What we know:
CATH architecture of the largest domain in chain B: 3-Layer(bba) Sandwich
Strand content of chain A: 25-35%
Largest sheet of chain B: 7 strands, mixed
Structural class of chain B: alpha/beta
Radius of gyration of chain B: 24 Å
Oligomer: heterodimer
Radius of gyration of chain A: 26 Å
Shape of chain B: globular
Number of strands of chain B: 19
Low-confidence stretches of chain A: 80-107
CATH architecture of the largest domain in chain A: 2-Layer Sandwich
Amino acid sequence: MQEFKLPDLGEGMQEAEIRRWLVQPGELVKLDQPMVEVETDKAVVEIPSPVSARVVAIHVPEGQVAKVGTPLLSFEGNVTKTSNVKQVAPETPAPPVATQSSSVSAKTVLAAPAVRKRAFELHIDLAQVPSSQPNGRITMPDLEAYLQRKSAEPALNGAAQLKEEAEEKRQPLTGLRRQIAERMERSWRTIPHATAFGELDGSALVGLRQELKPLAEERGVRLTYLPLLVKLLIPVLKEFPIFNATLDEERREIIYKRSFHIGIAADTQEGLMVPVLRNADTLSVIQIAQKLEDLVARAQKRALALQEVSGSTFTLNNVGSFGGSNGVPIINYPEAAILAVGRLQEQPVVCNGAIEIRPMMQLALSFDHRLIDGALAGRFLERFKQMVEKPQQLLLDLV
Amino acid sequence: MVVGDVTTAVDVLILGAGPAGYAAAIRAAQLGRKVTLVEPGPVGGTCLNRGCIPLKALLEASERYARTGIEELAQFGISAETVSFDWSKMQAWKQGVIERLSNGVRRLLTGNQVELVQGIGWFLNEKEVRVEGEHGSLRFAFEHCVIATGAGAPLLPTDVLTPEQALKLDTLPEQVTIAGNDYIALELATALARLGVTVELAVPGERLLPEVEPAAVRLLQTGLRKLKIRVKTGVVVEQLKARPLVVCKEVRPATAGLRLDVAGVQVDEQGGIKVDSMMRTSNPAVYAVGDCLGSHALAAVALKQGKVAAEVLSGMRVQFAPMVVPQVVQGWPELAAAGLTAEAATRAGYQVKTGRFPLAANGRALTLGADLGAVFVVADAEHETVLGGTVVGPRAADLLASLTLAIEMGATLTDLTEILYAHPALSEAVLEGAENALARAIHVLNKP
């Protein structure tokens, strides 16, 4: 019998949630036939079979999170052919297959006999227990800690059960929701947030888009405000490099990023995703528009590769696209700042002593107060406002 | 149906009083169960009455005799005139050992309030067993039943001896051919050769003990040569013409007469009872342990399985799941092994790190006059976790215990080398075997 273990799908991924099994025990699978759908950090990936063989057993049920190296399923006896696992999502490296003879139980779980005995007694699969030891050995305290965590869950559920039927419904935090929760927690807990607000007159932006829209359409590109805003944001980031930076918390050093990977917050059916526009400073408006359209569309389908949802250096949150006029954004950890732009709304504004109707846009810039002070944030916002209100400035610096 | 048939309701009914059955009986009694133990013969089963114990007794007696050989004693500066032995007295002593042990087990059973019923049992249905014995026919309805009926030798031609029969021959033959490739064949050959019998060991298959570390087998072969045992490999046992011939073949589960079909207990093609790791059969009230499963045929396994079944039927959640099963061949030298050999570990996908320490470099071994032997240690190269060990030399089975413990505990080579070993002692060879794997043994040149 051979075990198939969860491979490392790249980008330092440590675990994945088993979303859906595409094969059943007893089923004969072909080489490269998709076996299981797993959800990693922010992408859903199908793992194909490394062999042609019969599936004997599935070890991790749907909905459970498995660590890299955890046996996912077992194949029967003689497998005919092996190849490397390929990922369905593009641009990610093919991870190696981790198969091994199951006759050597020692290799799968390292634990003293008393620990194994206790685990069996408690119906605990030792493969699920995280180890505190460098060699992966499971100790009795590891087992007890796992048991406590595990028993805490059903106890909660048990107590809540009666109430649940009456007035509430409980649902485990899984998948994307769980990841969003964890990231937000981490950002909010580590980064002292401060937010600066601003407002800009979008008349010029509206005019610019109206002029460019038909031209872009001729090239088959639907031009929204977002690509223009990205383009106008880049010079500001270059001018204020601390906004395109990150704090190395351990070494207490500021890391200034030389590349401009702009995260774009996107709403999907299952929750917030932040696809990344890599090297946005090297792209034209048309290219940005094309890339964005593709990224957002694939975010909806959860078909993004890991590197397309990680590694951003600054995040732009177009709350306007979700219908909001404004909101306070939470920094996309470990970045230094995030800019939320609201919807363009016609509002009465006083211009040269007269009341005029202008399309106004609300701005909210949340920043890491360890790195950035309020005055600087104000200047950043002011500069961005100038850029958007007079977009022709772009020409001044055009090479 | 026997006239006046009365059904006796019992709590735990155990069929067979060998190591598996009596261990189950005692453990169940400890846990407060009322146990009825059914056995047609003397308690202790094959191991105690016909197998391990008589064989080991004979090995010990023959070793003592061989050690008094003139050449053997001369190296210690001892000279002896004549030393002889009396086969029938040796047999009587052996029988004495068996009886003493058997009585000991019987007393333990009585002391634990286990009711012993002499007779042969078989199933009437899923809940009942009939026992035919000296007290007539009895019918038991059980809450739980543990099958521990053991295994027996396969059918052999009438002019061929089983190892059991060879152990109690009236007279010692001048020469004998022993066919087999297991510990029984090797031990029998060793014992008889030491008593002056000309022994030919006919080995089916290409390699002697194919599962054992090849370098360890070579040491064993050196020992066989010293005893003037001729070893022939690639033998077809059925074609052997030599007589007397002892054939050591894998034993068969003794399940044929149990009527397991009516009990709803499933068996495999070889008649071995199918169980899970908690020793449960396909009938929820019936458990099976020991040689009747058709897997190991080792008393160490049977004893543990018996205890597991007793605990499970008493409501505990335990299983039989040792990582390794120690194997011993009491040849001359003795060989004991547990876990993976370097070859098996490599086949299983490990990068291995191996260590070896010859007893010729161990002070205690030299003072014992026994320098033929070595310790082999196999570890996973990455974490240096001990995966297997083989010991050849005096008291190899006892020395192996520390390696078995290391494997089961998931100990590393460093764990083995950080503890102190008494000096001078054979156990130091285990230390230096592990040190050699780490290229730091003191009393041997380490490989670069």
